[in-house]
């Protein structure tokens, strides 16, 4: 399922590519975006199967595939 890639989604994906597995909180810190903005982007990426949880209790995510390569 294709997703809309905006500047904020780009920032989130770039952090995964640069740093690897990240928690939601780390993404908020590294991107400077608000938690709701980061959460919305993660929800979209997750629904489209581009990211998955490595550890749900700590909200640790991993990038499966960069949607910008589609």
Features:
70 residues; alpha+beta; Arc Repressor Mutant, subunit A; globular
What does the average pLDDT come to?
95
- Give the class-level CATH name: Mainly Alpha
Indicate how many domains the architecture comprises.
1
Instruction: Round the Cα radius of gyration to an integer and report it.
Output: 11 Å
Q: What's the architecture in CATH terms?
A: Orthogonal Bundle
Query: What gap, in angstroms, lies between the N and C termini?
Result: 10 Å
Overall geometric form: globular
Give start-end ranges of low-pLDDT stretches.
Answer: none
Q: What is the chain-wise order of helices and strands? A: HEHHEE
Structural class: alpha+beta
CATH H-level superfamily: Winged helix-like DNA-binding domain superfamily/Winged helix DNA-binding domain
Strand order of the largest sheet: 1-3-2
Q: The CATH topology is what?
A: Arc Repressor Mutant, subunit A
Count the strands? 3
**Helix content class:** 40-55%
- Helix count, DSSP H or I runs of 4 or more residues: 3
Sheet having the most strands: 3 strands, antiparallel
Beta-strand residue percentage: 15-25%
Structure description:
- With 70 residues, the chain is an alpha+beta fold.
- The longest helix has 13 residues, at 7-19.
- It has one domain (7-63): Orthogonal Bundle (Arc Repressor Mutant, subunit A), CATH 1.10.10.
- It has helices at residues 7-19, 24-31, 35-47, and strands at residues 22-23, 51-55, 60-63.
- The protein has a three-stranded antiparallel β-sheet with strand order 1-3-2.
- The protein is 49% helix and 16% strand.
- The chain has three helices and three strands, in the order H-E-H-H-E-E.
- The N and C termini lie close together (10 Å).
């Amino acid at each position: 399922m294709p997703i809309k890639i905006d500047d904020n989604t780009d920032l989130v994906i770039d952090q995964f590519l640069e740093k690897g597995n990240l928690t939601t909180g780390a993404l908020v810190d590294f991107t400077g975006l608000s938690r709701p903005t980061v959460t919305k982007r993660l929800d979209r990426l997750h629904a489209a199967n581009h990211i998955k949880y490595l550890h749900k209790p700590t909200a640790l995510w991993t990038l499966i595939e960069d949607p910008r390569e589609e």
